[in-house]
Structures are given as C-alpha cells and as structure tokens.
Amino acid sequence: MQTRVSMQGISKRFDAVHALTGVNLTLYPGEVHTIAGENGSGKSTLLKILAGVLQPDAGAIEIDGKAVEFTDIRMAMNHGVTMVSQELSLVPHLGVAENVFLGHNQTRNTFGIDWKDTEKRSVEILNRLNLHVNPKAEVSSLPQHQQQLVEIARALASETRVLLLDEPTSSLAPAEVEALFNVVRQLRDDGVSIVMISHRMSEMLAISDRFTVLRDSKFIDTSSKDGVDENWLIDRMVLNKPKEATKKIKSGEPQKIVMEVKGLTGFAGDFADISFNIHQGEIVGLAGLAGAGRTELVEAIVGAHARRSGDVYVNTKKIGHNTRSTMNSGIALVPDDRRMKSTIHDMSVRDNLLLAVHGRPAKNRSRKKEEKIVNEWVAKFNIKVKNLDAPISSLSGGNQQKVVIARCLVSKPKVLILDEATRGIDLGAKAEIYEILRNLAREGLAILVVSSEITEIFEISDRVLVMHAGELTADLDRSTIKESDVVSAATGVLV
User: What positions does the domain ABC transporter occupy (predicted)?
Assistant: First the structure.
C-alpha cells in the first residue's frame, strides 16, 4: 500500500527536555491510527509537528512520497493535513457557520460571502456529527462539548486527507462519541488517514486499525489491531520497575483521618459519586489521564467548582461549599495553572507570598511580622531570589511554585492539595518540592497530590487513587502496586 505520510527520525527539544527522540511514524490512506503512551511521552508534540504548529529539530517528513517542511499551520492545511487539538481554537464571538468555514472554502457571490449557502453547508456537516444548533449562534453560547464538535466540523469542512485528533472525545458524552466515531469511519472509508490520541482504552480498541506506542519521548512499537489488546498496550506504555513497587515510603505513617470526601458529584458530568479519605501524615497521589476529572474534583473540594451533591469533612466537621469556608476549615489548594490561577505575575515575590495574609483585617497585620514570615519561608524552601520586591515572573518556574506552596502554608492548613505542582519545572526543582512535601507529611500534614506523571505519583505517594472518565476506579496501596496497575485503572481496565 502506498504511504500517505512518513515521519522519520523526528526529534524535538524544549530547553533541556527531550520531547521526541528519533521517532518514526507511517500513515496509510484509509486507516485510523492511534498513538498511545503516558502523559509526557511525546504524542501531542508529534502531531503538532505534522500539523505545522511546531518545527522539528531533526528528522524528515514526506506526504505521498514528496518531502515537505511545514513552517506553519497554513502550509500543512494546503497539503491536506488538519489538526483538532485539545485546546479549542474557535473564535468565541463569531457564529457557528463562520467558525466552521473560517478562512477556507467559503461560498462567494457578487456581494462577498454567501452567508446563506455557508450556513446551509455548515448545517450539513454538523448534522453528520449529530449536532443540531443554530448556525448563526455565537460559539461562546454553546456548552464545551458542542464547541468541541464545531472544532471537528471545521476540520471536516476543509479538504482534509490527513486528520489529526488530539483527545477529541475528552468532553463528549457517549452518544456524541459514537456519532464522532461514525464520521471517523466514514472518512476512513473515503480514504482519509486519521491519527487519534486517546487515553481511553476502550475507545482506542474500538476505533483503531493500527497502533503506535511512544514512551519517554521514544518510539516503542507499532502493530495492526489484530495483534493488539489491553495487555499489549499497557506492557509497552509503561516500563515496570519492580524495585519501585516495594521501596520504602518516605513520609510519616498514616494516623487519624483528617479529610473525608463523601459522594461528591459535579454538575456537568465531570465526576460522580467520589468518596475517599486522607490521614494525618499521609501523601495520597491522585492519578488519571487527560479528561478524567481530577482538576474538577479538587476544585470542587475547595469550593471553586460547582458540585451537585456530596460533602467534605475536615476532622469530622462538614465544611461549606465555598472557598472561604474551605480556607477557614484548613484546606489549601495549589492550582494546576501557575500563571493563570496561582500568581499575580506583575506583583512582587513578597506580595505573592503574602496574598493570604493581605486578606486579613488591617488591625491584624504587622509589617514586621510579615517580613519575618517571608524571610522564614524563603529560607525554609530555599527560594532563589535576589530581590523580594522584584516581580514573581522574574523567578524560575520552580521557585515560583515554591512561593505558591509557601503562601498556602502560611495559613497553617490541615490539608494541602497540589494539582500538577511540578508541571513545567526542571528536575532539580521537582526533587526539592518532593522533599518539601515529605517533610510536611512527617510534620503531620495531610497531602493530596494530583499528577499526570505516574513516575511522580510513585515517587511521592503512600497511597494512590486513580480516576477514569469522572469515576474513582482504584484506591491502591503504594507498596504493593506496579505502574501497569495504575495505567490499567486510568484507562478503564479493572485492576
């Protein structure tokens, strides 16, 4: 069979991080090809290079046997390559039809764009996805899952020969997933090459004709669907390290239950009927793949995300459903997005660390005490800063994160929740944060660590909770599990 796409020896670095190292990928016409791997294995980076979003540091790409170099998305689209990313690229205040045909294939007449025909054609494409909305409606008025379908419709509206789908079902309901898969199968039968990234094992096996597995930025294996099952994928996605399964846990021994979550359920189907507890001096890891509902869950615990039902208890006392009640009860959160949720970038290091203190009444504040607080935490966490009055943006990512963690601890919480606390920071800073957390656990703090990196979960946790598709699928003792157990639970396979 003639090759549609050939990617050979693709490498990409971001500073000192190897995102891809000599990766190969071959696509044929009329196939659905899934790229599988843990978070951080290089899957999305590979698709972004093929889509022209990123340029490789090394390697070669051929389309239909001809060498190409995509310097931008437009060049890739001109060669029939279209990508639907996890991050929506719609224009919120434009209509649905305008977004579907934005920048391409618009019908024109003597007066300019023929909007009547454009809207008619957009409805035809949206109907294929079982999405029935007003083509004139602003995209911003649609719920998230419908915006995802509009994004996919835009890809279908171009003359696509290679369709790249990066987690296309993460915000879709089961009926919407099946409608999308029906369209994918139609496109495959029409000769389109389709590449999909999914963290849902059942979806991978249901839709894919061929599989390629990446691990730690490297190509591991490829196979047709006839040779692939759950065990084949899990065995290649993770590198089990038997010694890690029994390594000594470094935090303190669990004592009394400090926080208990009972039957927590979100409004938008993000998570349902979640129950667990955390003991004093215990570090609990919360694992799961993209779209599992981890961030929504922890934000609901602290009152920053709406919940339909369920309760949270701290030291047996039920707390309210708002952030103020949560803070007063002794729960602190380090959010998943440092830039958007954790720091005020133009504000000084000093003032970022003291944000919680600044919320107190003026009569309870003392400049001398505040200065002592700042100096103590800077020294305790070895925060590398030359000038405390400099903007926090002048610090490295790791030092910024230390400031955020210190700010949470100023209020002396009983429970510390960290969502992707080491995302975007170097290995040295990660190691420092791990040691900080271990010391805090030894001092009796109850800690919940949310992470996409299984190696991080294994490095730091006493116990591991796993989420899949909004459900808690496993509660595992760290001393007796392997990485494959976590991957199985995270992809919907019973452990």
Answer: 5-241, 249-494
